[in-house]
């Protein structure tokens, strides 16, 4: 399959996730997506496990998920970021439930993603080239 067609289908499926939500939920999801993407220009928004996912280089960073009409923003500490002495099998995930009737905690979201990115940047700087 042509790469461009595959990418177009992924984008359409990703946008469909937002489009299929009720109006208030969709608007909140789009606002949170914008907040996350504003943290760093290297954050990538993609579809993974049928939901919107955010990554930073090769690290998983977070996700958005609607479950039982509740919005969850997941913060992921990728298992690849742990020292090799700490043998982690799974990523650490912390979720924040976002209430449609309350203000979005913009500063908390940005600060949590900045901390994750800072940790990932330390790992990226200390990695040795594979050649």
Short description:
With 131 residues, the chain is of the alpha+beta class.
Describe the structure.
The protein has 131 residues and is an alpha+beta fold. 42% of the residues lie in helices and 27% in strands. Helix 2 (23-39) crosses helix 3 (106-126). The mean pLDDT is 83.
H/E element string?
HHEEEEEH
**Order of strands across the main sheet:** 1-2-3-4-5
Strand share of the residues?
A: 25-35%
Q: Which outline best applies?
A: globular
Q: Tally of extended strands?
A: 5
Fraction of residues in helices? 40-55%
Query: Any low-confidence stretches, pLDDT <50, length ≥5?
Result: none
Q: Note the total helix count.
A: 3
Which oligomeric state applies?
Answer: single chain
Average pLDDT reading = 83
Query: What profile does the largest beta sheet have?
Result: 5 strands, antiparallel
Distance between the termini: 31 Å
The computed structural class is alpha+beta
Radius of gyration: 16 Å
Key traits:
3 helices, 5-stranded antiparallel β-sheet, 5 strands, alpha+beta, 131 residues
How do the strands and helices of this protein lay out in sequence?
Layout: H1 3-19, H2 23-39, E1 43-48, E2 51-56, E3 59-67, E4 70-77, E5 92-98, H3 106-126
Antiparallel strand pairs: 1-2, 2-3, 3-4, 4-5
Helix pairs in contact: 2-3
């Amino acid at each position: 399959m042509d790469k461009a067609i595959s990418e177009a289908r992924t984008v359409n499926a990703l946008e469909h996730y937002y489009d299929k939500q009720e109006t208030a939920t969709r608007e909140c999801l789009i606002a949170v997506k914008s907040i996350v993407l504003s943290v760093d220009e290297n954050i990538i928004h993609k579809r993974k496990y049928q939901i919107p996912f955010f990554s930073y280089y090769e690290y998983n960073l977070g996700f958005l998920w609607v479950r039982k009409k509740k919005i969850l923003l997941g913060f992921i500490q990728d298992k690849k970021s742990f020292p090799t002495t700490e043998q982690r099998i799974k990523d650490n995930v912390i979720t924040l439930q976002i209430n449609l009737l309350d203000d979005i905690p913009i500063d908390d979201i940005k600060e949590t993603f900045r901390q994750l990115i800072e940790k990932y940047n330390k790992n990226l700087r200390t990695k040795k080239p594979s050649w």
